[in-house]
Input
Amino acid sequence: MEPTFPLFRLPEKAIVHVLQNMNSDRLFIFSLVSTKTKNLVTSLGLRAVSVYIGISFEICLNVNFDTSGWNLIFSNGSNDQNAEFDVTRPISASTFSLHQPFQPSTPFNFSDWLNHILTIFCCTNNLLAVKFRAGSEQFEMESLKNTLKNVNGLAITEGVTDIHSKQILNSFKDLKKLALERNPFEDNCEVQKFFIQNFEKIEFCDVYSLDDMLLVNSEKVRFTKPISQKQFNQFLKHWIRGSNPRLQDMFLSIDNTTSVSREVLLKGIDCVDVAEEEQQEICQELSIVSDYMVEIRRNDETTAVIATKDFENNLYIRFFAYY
Amino acid sequence: MTSPASSSEVKYLIESSEGNTFDVSGAALRQSNTFNAMFLNIGADGPIPFTDYNEATLKKVFEYCEHSVNEENYSGPKHQDDLSKWDLNFFNEMDQKMFIDVINASNFLDIERLTSYCCERIARMLRGKNTQEMIKVITLPTAEELEAKQKVEEKKAAAAKKVAEKAAETAEKTETLEELPVQQLVQTTRNKLTRKYLSFSNE
Output
């Protein structure tokens, strides 16, 4: 027989002490026992740093803390992967620490689970990041939109169909971060509507042009498809003349198979090498690795550092503007 | 003997709820932050009254303190798997009632190490449990049990109300009865005084 213990016969201070000895995943399960346990866990003031929701054939809800994290899996239990997944129905959750899916005393639907987590771990909604993967088509978009309010970050992976990607982009607005692994639009002007938005960060993994680069209005941008050194050189010249005024941090790569020459990369641009000591400081401060760094200055006196790193036939570039 | 001296040889007398007293070394007592805050600097004349706790509980708590006198200063919870054989025996030989009493006393005396180990031990009981299993472990009453408990409490409250009403009635009657002798006394005194005055004036 399992040992039992009448926890609520202890003074509150001792109960809190017991809870402080529990990991956040166990605290979460404990918080589902009753309103009293929910309030106790909430009173601990444990804060999640982010809540990430991965949507594919199932939903993976990942709750992250400073040094730990755990996830809940919600599956519709159907063997047919194309069967509709109704997020408004009560659903059990699975987690690594328990062998069987579980439910609180009062059955929860996905929205209840999410709200409960956001409440007990003192999350504001703007910590939510959602990633759509292949298989997410089985979810009814309107229900998802109503359930996932105030999404902060949105990512759409390569496996999602173009039609579905467009539906997703239409459903989630007011984002701070957007990641697109593929351009779902036939007309390039459509994707440019996203480049001109003032996100905190945009990540684009498909082919992009110089025009696309110049339209970027986000503070941070990450392009993963390599471009030519000429395209980057042209971008720098536009930046010096005043383009991309909000840009602070850009990551991109240059196809190195034809061997990149710094002369071509920085042709026609006034730049100075950053001293070795200063390079080390910048690398440490920004957590980057670099084997060469130059500083450029634009016409309004704003400076930027271009850090490069040669790795496996690609030249990786990090561009930091200092306003 | 009780003394504010900090030498480990100094013994303090502890008084339990039964009124019994027993010795505890100063070194063991100093693990209690409550003792440190209340008695360490000012000393205590006579036994220190921890009279909310029985002798068996206090002896168990201070047995732990005496044992851990020579251990390093407490620096946060130790994993149960790292507990010594002595520690494990100490916990295993307690029944549930004693365990609860020890936690309560340790919590009041603010003995960090003991409270922490006890609480970690309880937390371990909840490991790997789902919500329904947790309800069983922490012996949380079910909805039916809560309903039954509420009915019992309502009956108790009704009974208490009746008793209170009866007591109020009795008090009212007593008040009238108590007033009577006083009035009688006043009257008797007045009569006596009148008689005395009359006899005086007759002289």
In short: Strands of chain B lie at 11-15, 21-25, 48-49. The CA atoms of residues 34 and 76 of chain B lie 18 Å apart.
